[in-house]
TrEMBL record, chains A, B:
Gene3D superfamilies: 6.10.170.10, SGNH hydrolase (3.40.50.1110)
Keyword tags: Hydrolase
One family name in Pfam for this protein: SASA
Cross-referenced SUPFAM superfamilies: SGNH hydrolase (SSF52266)
Protein name stated in the entry: Sialate O-acetylesterase
Domain Sialate O-acetylesterase: residue ranges: 4-224
Protein species of origin: Enterococcus hulanensis
Amino acid sequence: MKSILLIGQSNMAGRGYLSEVPAIYNENIEMLRNGRWQMMAEPIHSDREVAGVGPAASFAAAWSQDHLAEKLGLIPCAEGGSSIDEWASDQVLSRHALSEAKFAMESSELIGILWHQGETDSLNGRYKEYAEKLKAVFEHFRQELGLPELPIIVGTLPTFLGKTGFGLSAVEFEEINQEIERVVSELENCYLVSAENLTANPDGIHINGESQRQFGIRYYEAFAKKTDIPTALGNEDEQLSKIYGRATTKNEKIYLLSRDFALGKLDYQKFIEKFTEITK
Amino acid sequence: MKSILLIGQSNMAGRGYLSEVPAIYNENIEMLRNGRWQMMAEPIHSDREVAGVGPAASFAAAWSQDHLAEKLGLIPCAEGGSSIDEWASDQVLSRHALSEAKFAMESSELIGILWHQGETDSLNGRYKEYAEKLKAVFEHFRQELGLPELPIIVGTLPTFLGKTGFGLSAVEFEEINQEIERVVSELENCYLVSAENLTANPDGIHINGESQRQFGIRYYEAFAKKTDIPTALGNEDEQLSKIYGRATTKNEKIYLLSRDFALGKLDYQKFIEKFTEITK
């Protein structure tokens, strides 16, 4: 089994509305819960009550299409609103994320980090020290994980920032993006993913559900090809159609049926009937 | 700040339907997220997609009424379906729960454990070795946390088990309850909480939302009075009315307004209007 560490702030944790996009269930995609693996169900993060769709689910689904016989586990450690300073080596967020990653590594091989952060640092000239701090975060994680060449995929900040709602204060996102690009170009095995053409929730700061699905496809393209993705891809929606159109397996059907029964959506007799039908 | 560790299986994690009971928000009640504290919002656990109402929210709300100037933090580490063997000292669940508790203890004083487990062990004569194993779990946690006298509050298994749905297999819940009672009576600072008159979800194994709220009141009564609660209390619903009737503070209003804005339930202009109204 392989695994991927998810760190950064809210747009990595995910705030896209679940009701806006088709769900992704895949028995080969799991998420870390209490140090163990469970089948992925969004929201993958639970950093806030408003956690929703992030880039990780479609990233994992795209990975899974290329690795049909393997499992991928997602390690959710992104934290809404966190600044780059809160990811310094002595801070709780990084110590906790490393702790979670080490639990995951007891039963998986960590093959990458997905990172998205910077909205909180897009003001008051913070960009001037951002590159140095970001580089230190990446180097610290690689060192502590004992994986000096671990691939790190880094999304840029969306261009809808600085305009409205909770995004209003992020006026220096272009400066932060320049610093992100610089760090990525300076580090080995570090790849950039463009946030071009992504759409915001009405709050003006969070990437919406549909755009997060597209963003995840770009993250996977960067990971798979080991290359920067400097613009939107042409075929994101086509790839998502393939993911959504995947046939549900027997195990997934049993999972979904059991979930619906636990939620009181059908009675026991109907549950048994459907269970028998699936497993016959 | 004080804190409470939540461990056990699904009925501690919570499977009551959130739609069934009034929500509890209280700026003095927090929950551990990424090693840090956030205001409590249910579900407190995220062990499974179906996580919902457990006993912890009403426990904390009752505690808060008696400690108006203090904060309480909840550490969610219960795991759906886990057996007593999966809580042995060398297992991931206990190692992970201890790791989470230690992050919490960097910024809080741990004052107790709430435990509920045993459904998974209510078959095949497992009760014969249950007491010994349960005792070992409690002793291990106290030792590793460096708190040999840490209060542990232990709920019994509900009498609706063994009858229908997912509860069908739990035929030896009465034997398990006898073993739980024995362990509690043998350990210092360990108190029993009766599951008398609790009602199940349609799945026949999970305590419903309303009953979980009552159960939490009983857990708090045992914790506060340092005594066993061998039957239902007479005044649970009265206590819950007081909790539900508590006036919402300014900080809680800002939290709820910001949440609704993030969820797209109101536009930015309306958000600003309401925000101005709350903070004027």
